[in-house]
Amino acid sequence: MAIAVHNPFDIVRRQIREATEQLGLPPAVYEILKQPLRFVEVAIPVQMDDGSLRVFQGFRSQHNDALGPTKGGVRFHPSVTPDEVKALSMWMTVKCALLAIPFGGGKGGIVCNPKELSPRELEALSRGFVSALQQVLGPDKDIPAPDVYTTPQIMAWMMDEFSRARAANAFALVTGKPVELGGSRGRVEATGRGCVAAVAALAERIGLSLEGARVAVQGYGNVGSVAARLLRELGAVLVAASDSQGGVYNPHGLDPLALSRFKEEAGTLASFPGGDRITNEELLACDADILIPAALENQLTEANAGAVKARIVAEAANGPTTPEAEAILYERGALVIPDVLANAGGVTVSYFEWVQNLSGWYWPEEEVERQLARRMAEACEEVFHLQEERRSTIRQAAYMVAVRRLAEAMRLRGWLARTPALWRG
Ligand code: NAD
Q: Over the chain, what is the mean pLDDT?
């Protein structure tokens, strides 16, 4: 079978177009949202440890700032492309609007393999990225954050570079910083915690008890491991987990903390002694009630979606399910919590971090958790309610909530020309 190869940029454009049509919005809304308002490509020269010079390619996409400054992570990966970065920035716009966070969507990327760079080279590259984009970044313009293979240390270097150039501390430039430099308590766990909140809300709605529910996590990194740990605290059983080198399966349960410790020491969990080795494909199809793809895009496709047994698929990663795969999952009776909801906990606590930096008043962890729980619960309620009302997928409902908010903001700002009020009441 020929499998459709998906460009995430095409997918997100289609998702936004569908939402504008379902809401009956004027075409101008889609015309503005179908591409980033600004996309910048930069060349970053770095002197390598051996004395040679390498020039890295970097991107920053600022999709839409109708609701506030753009916000989004920076990805360090050898296969980053402009279309991927644009798509990720558009998902950020939708995510922020959905959670009613006063940010627009941004995203950045550098084509590199961070595993091959020394700490000094990584620092020079991170500083070079900020230096090259100085004019378009800032706490009230565009606020970077961590993403795949970028860390709190990298955020600290980026903040320091910007602060040096401005001759003033600018903690609010980036989020995901170490707590010692204005990072928020609870940020590291935020995305996994938000994902679990969404899973718990949906499980309750469909009458699936989390006590004893079997969970499989693809991509046992920051987000995946935290989600596994918190689900275990709610009584669920982690039966499978994987990383880029393969996975491990045990129907009687894996200890999430022991897995994390093993991965930390061995570099991978694939050889974890507490279960059987499985491939990533086998993990997706294993006997689980809840499947959490927490690695990269396009993991669930029309080729493997039919084998998924889970009732809930929670997209901790961005874009892990292709549109064809989602249709197959729904036919099978599974429900997909879309990325824009399932992983929105990260940007929500990033927003809290920015608020704390600007006010200089730092919250205890319990306050972060309480505010995150409230926002996730509100967003889930709004989305699940609309989904039932419209008999749509959860993703379509989430896009409608977000696009409606964005369209209203753009209309009020006068971006939609002479468009009359979009809704009554
Ligand atoms: P991470 O680098 O900590 O973890 C990613 C994990 O995925 C690693 O364990 C890696 O080995 C594994 N992986 C890579 N390729 C794989 C493959 N083909 N099959 C199985 N596993 C594979 O990254 P993270 O911060 O946990 O982010 C994971 C995903 O969540 C990404 O898609 C990211 O965009 C998304 N996300 C992260 C955050 C956040 O706050 N960190 C917020 C929103 C969305």
A: 95
CA of 28 to the centre of ligand 1 (A): 35
Q: What is the pLDDT of residues 368-383, one digit of tens each?
A: 999 999 999 999 999 9
Tokens in use for 169? 């501390």
Helix (H) or strand (E) holding 17: helix 8-22
**Which of 109, 143, 173 is where one domain is finished?**
173
Determine how many CB atoms are found less than 10 A away from the CB of residue 287. Answer: 12
- pLDDT-derived band at 314 (thresholds 50, 70, 90) equals very high
Q: Could you tell me if the CB of 149 is within 6 A of ligand 1? A: yes
**pLDDT tens column, 130-172:** 999 999 999 999 999 999 899 999 999 999 999 999 999 999 9
Strands (E), 65-103: 70-77
Is 349 among the domain residues? no
Residues 112 and 205 in one domain: no
Q: How far is the CA of 216 from the centre of ligand 1 (A)?
A: 14
Q: Are 56 and 110 in contact (CB under 8 A)?
A: yes
pTM above 0.70, yes or no: yes
Range of the domain at 414: 184-343+365-425
Tell me phi and psi for residue 62, to 5 degrees. Answer: -115, 100
Domain boundary at 132, 148, 173, which? 173
**Residue 316 CB less than 6 A away from ligand 1:** yes
Residues 277 and 394 in one domain: yes
Q: Is the pLDDT assigned to residue 119 strictly greater than 70?
A: yes
